[in-house]
Structure formats: C-alpha cells, structure tokens
Amino acid sequence: MKGWLVAFTLTVATAALPARADSGRLNLHSDFGLGGAVAGPGSFQRAGDERSIGGLVGLGLDYELVPPIAIETLFMAGGFTKAFPTSDRTGSSLVGISFGARFRFLDDDLGYLGEHGGNARGNLYASAHIGLYSFDSIQYGFDFTVGYELSVHRPVSVGPMVRLLTLVGGSNEGADVVLLAGVSASLEAIPRPAGDDTDHDGLDDDDERRRGTNPREADTDTDGLSDRLEVDYDTDPLVADTDTDGLADGFEDQNGNGLLDLDETDPRNLDTDEGGISDGDELMSTRTDPRDRRDDDSDSDGVPNDADSCANTPSGSPVDHAGCPARQAEPEIAQIAFVAGRSRISPEGEAALTILARSMGSGRTRIRAYVLRTTNGTADAALSSRRAEVLATWFVEHDVPRERFSIESLGGDEVEGRTTDPNALTLQIVRD
Description:
The protein has helices spanning 2-15, 205-211, 227-232, 249-252, 279-286, 347-359, 377-397, and strands at 26-39, 52-66, 69-80, 92-105, 123-135, 137-153, 156-168, 176-190, 332-337, 365-370, 405-409, 424-431. The protein is an alpha+beta fold. The strands form two sheets. An eight-stranded antiparallel β-barrel has the order 1-2-3-4-5-6-7-8. The protein has a four-stranded mixed beta sheet with strand order 9-12-10-11, covered by helices on one side. The termini are far apart.
C-alpha cells in the first residue's frame, strides 16, 4: 500500500501543471460525509444483510510545498448504526488520525467570486492519507478523497467531495471499507505569496506567460496602457488598437484609469457615439466629435457623413442609400366608372377595381381621387368624398388591408390626366 501511494504521488506531481490557486500556502479544512461501511465485518448485522450507515466529520490542515502538492494531516470522527458481530454495542464509532498529501488540479488563480476579475472557479483536488483508526479495535487505514472547491468568498471555498476509507488489522477478519459523500469547506489561513512580477505591471510572471504577454515589459503592445490594466478592463494587452478604429488604446483612455471619462473615447468600441462613423475617422478625417452622434450626419438625412454623397440635402426630404434625393415614383392614372351622379360603382368600375386591387402588392399605395370639375365646387367636393369612401370600403371588403392604402379626396380638381367623363372617379396612384 505504501508503494502504491508513492507511485500515485509521483504520477500526479509529474502530470500536474504548476499553478497558483485561490487556496493559500496554509489551509484549514472541514468536511461532513454521509455513507456507511460497504464491505467487511462492520457492514452487516449479525442477523440480516442491512448495510451499516452513518457519517463522519473530518478536520484537516494542509501546507503547500510546491504547487500543486501539499502535505496534509486529517482527523476523522463519527459513527454508524450497526455494531460489529463480536460486539454487544448497538452501534460502532470511528475515530482516527492520518497523514498524507493533497494535489490540486486545474487551479484557478483569478480571485474569489465578488472580487474584481474573480470568479467561483476553484480547483479539482485529490488527497490520500495513511493513519491509525479506532473502529474494530485499533486499525491501520488508508483513505482516498476527490472533491471540487468553489471560491465562493475570500478566504472560504466550499464544494462536494467523496471519500473512500479502507481499514485493516482489526479484531475481525477482513478489511472494512467505508464510502462517504458530502460537503467540504476550506479556509485560506496563510495566503500564498505573490509570484514574481519582473516588470512591475501587477501581473506575475507565470500569469503573463499563460496570457502570452511579456513578463519583462509592463506594456507588451506599447499602446500606453499597462498589461494589468488591459486585463482588468477588457482591452487586449497584445493588440495596441483593440477596437480597430485607428486609435491606440492608450490614446483613447488618456488618463489610463480603465474608465470612459467625459473627454475620452472608448478603446473597446469602434464608434463611441454610435453615430455611424468610427472614432478614428471622426478625429482624423471628418473632424467631428466622436462623443456626439449628432455631427455624424450634418444634414440629418439618416446617412452618416462618410457615406453621404449629397451632403446638403434639405432637411426632411426623402433620400436614397447614398444620401441623395430619392426619385419620386411617377403617379399612375386610373378611372373608375360610377353610376351617373351617384356614389355607386358601376359594373365596369367593379371590373377595373378588381384589376387594381390585384396589382397593389404588399407595399403601401397612396391614392388621390377627384371628379370632373363643374361650376359647383361644393357639390364636386361632396361627390368626390362620397366616392372615395365607397372606394375605401370596396378595397377592405375585397381583402386589401386598410393599413396598406390611403385615399385622399380632392373634389373637382384639375390635375394632369384629369377625366372628361362626369361619371368617373379619377385616381392618381403612387406605389411606395
């Protein structure tokens, strides 16, 4: 068994990567596990085959020698519901002390949850010990434990664990095997000393090697911000211009505090004011304010200056994607026949409307409706309005949604294409 422990120690020490954990140089441990004796004389009653169940409390202390290896002492105490076959007691107790080692894998070294840049990730660990126990009289014992510690709040880590304890050499023949599962907690009693920081940038050399930054240069990418500041505030310590806007990170964060101050641009955002022009173009080309989106579009047509081919279009006028005046659609002319002097559509008008409704498509259609002008303007307006209302009702009844068209009554208007038919409603149609 001792040979197996030595082999296990050498294997883990060789395979594990050097690391700095959230755990300290000296750590206190407590754990509580529920389970029972799953093999051996202590696992059965004298009559029947029910398992012996119970729990153990463990108290430990480990001291780190070289990451990830620590030496550890462990004290355990508890009891189980069943006694040994040779005992008159109603239960069995277990007390023991052991010595061994703890190995921490996949150590996270960014700090505890709630700390700047920290998180709950901790470490996967395994520990093994040899010791003396009082269970079935005095016995030798070997335990193996695996668990995962979460860095919940400095200096405390908490997580699940599973322990297998094997005891030999007692009054009864055979080995007792106890299996437990529960929760463990670690307390960082003495913090691990900080690693070397050759360039004094706040990141130790090991951390810089993992990140790819230069441990001998405080500002690896020479952008004016230290490597530690860039790591803490999410700019790239390996790229001088994180947001690729043509401005170095240190030029944008001029006071080097990692915050977006009133007179600065954001080194993490290509376009700080989100007006459509990058910070670099605003400062070096358009000479506008990269903190004020209003000057990114000087004629307020919705097209940023750097993409606007017509920079001085009148405010409110429609423009195309290049910022130039949009060509207006030519109006179509249609005539819908009505019964003479009435607001009832004639059969010929029904046929024409059916064709028009089918051609309206999925866009929006604007319709201007008017009748032949007479000497009675009031009558012309009334007749035009009634016929326009009838026309709108007809469209809706024939499955043209009301939001897809608009109708404006012009009365007896004289516009290009006006009708000479007194019984027709003339329509000017613009399709958007």
